[in-house]
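Quarterly update, task 2.4: adenosine-5'-diphosphate-bound model.
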Amino acid sequence: MSNVQILLVDDHELFRRTTRSFVESHPNWTVCGEAGDGIEAVEKAKKLRPNVILMDINMPRMDGAEATRIIRREVPECNVIVVTQNHSSIARQQAAAVGAQGFVTKSDLGKDLRQVILSVIGVRDAKAVSLGEGHDAIPEWLRGGGALGDLIYKFDWAKTPLGNIAEWPPSLKTIVRVLLTSRFAMWMSWGPELTFLYNDAYARMTLGNKHPWALGKRSQDVWQEIWADIGPRISQVLKDGKATWDEALMLFLERSGYREETYHTFSYSPLFDDKGKTAGHLCVVTEETDRVIGERRLDSLRSLSAELNKATTEDDVTLSVHRCLEENQKDLPFTLTYLLTEDGQQARLACRSGIQEGHPAAPPVIELGEANGVWPLRDLLGGKDSLLMEGLSGRVGTVPSGFWDKEPSRALLLPISGGTQGATAGIFVAGLNPFRPLDVSYAGFISLIAGQISAAITNARAYELEKKRAEALAELDRAKTTFFSNVSHEFRTPLTLMLGPLQDLLSRSQTHLTPTAKQQLELVNRNGARLLRLVNTLLDFSRIEAGRYQAVYQATDLAGFTSELASVFRSATERAGLKLIVDCPRLEEPVYVDRDMWEKVVLNLISNAFKFTFEGEIAVSLERAGNFAELRVRDTGEGIPPEAIPHLFERFYRVPNTRSRTHEGTGIGLALVQELVKLHGGFMRVESTLGKGSTFIVSIPFGQDHLASSQLGGARSLASTAVGAKPFVEEALRWLPDDENTKHEPIAEAELLAVPCPPTAEAGSRPRILVADDNADMRLYLARLLGEQYQVDCAADGQIAIDIARKHPPNLILSDVMMPNLDGFHSISKRQRNWIMRSRIPFKPTPPAAALDRSFSNSSRGIPLP
Ligand code: ADP
């Protein structure tokens, strides 16, 4: 078939363009039309009646499969070749299913299309082209020599130095036969002018449009453009009779209408005539152009992708693009990456490769409103997927030539996405290698580069946005923390001032309050205390976040302290019908904890367990686990759904729809507990089974190396926010049904007093205090309160106090003034007073209980000894 008319059908303009340039590089093939979808393809097939239709499968409106079916039915003389992104096995099925004559995958287009077209049209031409008359006359040694065998037979060799074919020497015939029957690409030279002969494989793979012209020409004329490279090699072979070897040698062939960058691995070996003299040479060659160029492009893509993976900001992205693309100035002699400004009015040159700053072809800013700019960027903003600019020198002047000695005459412009909602973020301009066609693989390579830049810009902008959002959130969080801090301070002061006198009033034994008034004040007191607890928790948070939480880590008998804290809940759990198991065997070494904090940790966890457990037990245990003291608070309650567990320690998080004794709650308890545990260098976790119960596990390291030395021992200057066990237990009791509560005696006040921390030092080494008071509650209260740091002896009246003091002289006597038998200071006899003075024992009459309470809480537990 002399001229093959080809219709290109694809919805991508860039693909049509690159395929067109490929098709048109073949001298006998013409693109007779293009179609962007199936409907258009059918119309054009009917109108143009092409010999071959290259049919994309995935297209809008009507896909290629449907269009092929219609064309095969209505224009059966057209050959359809399906072109698809799919794997070749699927492509084959697709083609067979729609009755197409051939298929080619897009990834192999550059490699296979030519052959597929040839074989598709060859089917029809086979008869016409077939050897026809005279075929039988082909001599035996040329049979099976393919198309070249026929051509060689028909060629008029008499006009060449080889002379009439019938008279060729046997050595020449033999070698030509070897050449023709091989499937390896080969060419050979013979005779004084090194006359050129070759086989089918060589014609297909290497010769391009020099076939069949090259047959019988002088080798030097056939390969004139590379004779400087290969001529000396051939001469050497002819002279020495030794073979050459070249691997992936770059050669610029003129076989497609332009100088083409190609790579070949080949060997030249000598050929001998009948007399054994060197008469020519044989070249066995493998063309490696696709492999070499493919690997080079892959390298660029790989290094760009590796660099871009590390890039987080737009600047990182443009720097990486510059670095990577500078490396490949063969495929990309120069590139320009323009990014649009926020208002979309300008494009700013964000990076370049292969071109100097200030080069006229690389203006730093392009006004998009202006027509006739150096680069027609505006044309790409309307949704075009690419723009090929030809005749560069006429439009933008001289451009750099990159690796080559010839400057690019064409540039491909592609949009960079990554703007808001997928809008165009910029334009990528690539100067094209003047020695390669813009085929599918080259265009694909550049669009992959643009795609990588797009993805990286999108990610960088998303990252930037995320960072800004995170900064805004952090700012909001800081503002919230400051707000919490201010508000909690503001709440705390009036609350304390309200609760103080209220508790005074309530604690007076002889009160003029009516039972109803007392009840109501108790209600106020309870709720005030609850409010104070919440305010304190918020204050704790703000202190932790501001790094102002004043921790004082003290060596503590953690087992004793924890079991005391846990036991506070005993009455409440019993009332609720739950078993409280406390299992805290003494640890062999003390643990450094801030006691206020530890109290909050334990009480919060037990109070939660109580809140969410309706039957069964609550078990509190403490034991050594490696280098950690491990507290476990286990319950047989409602449990926590697995999806809630990752959020459990988030501030204000509450598991929805969990059955609990109360709906009260703020969701900050666990978040606070976790922060407090972290301040101890510890960590916490939870194990839970829905419907079966939960175990909260807190691990605190032994030793003190992980704690700042300034925070070990000592006292704190900020007011403590510890509220003791009372509010926790009182709150828990209110969650019980009324009848549960009224069935029982009220819990003794003493049980609810602050839990003293068991002494870590031996009793003998602690200062001794003698407490004399006729009020048992007061004695108990003071004993518990002071027991943490002192040895405390108690006496119910003055006489007993004196007796005890004689037996165990105290460092300090704390005495009520009004007492039975021997009352306070005023009624002690002079003799006894003298004894006290002589013993140099400080004597402090205790003020009324509430005032004492205040003074104790003001000084954060404990009166220092003089
Ligand atoms: P609050 O108890 O004020 O809601 P917390 O921070 O103490 O806040 O607890 C957060 C959430 O964790 C609770 O609302 C509850 O859903 C869940 N939770 C905590 N402890 C338990 C537990 N022992 N059993 C079941 N769920 C629990």
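Highlight for this quarter: The mean pLDDT is 84.
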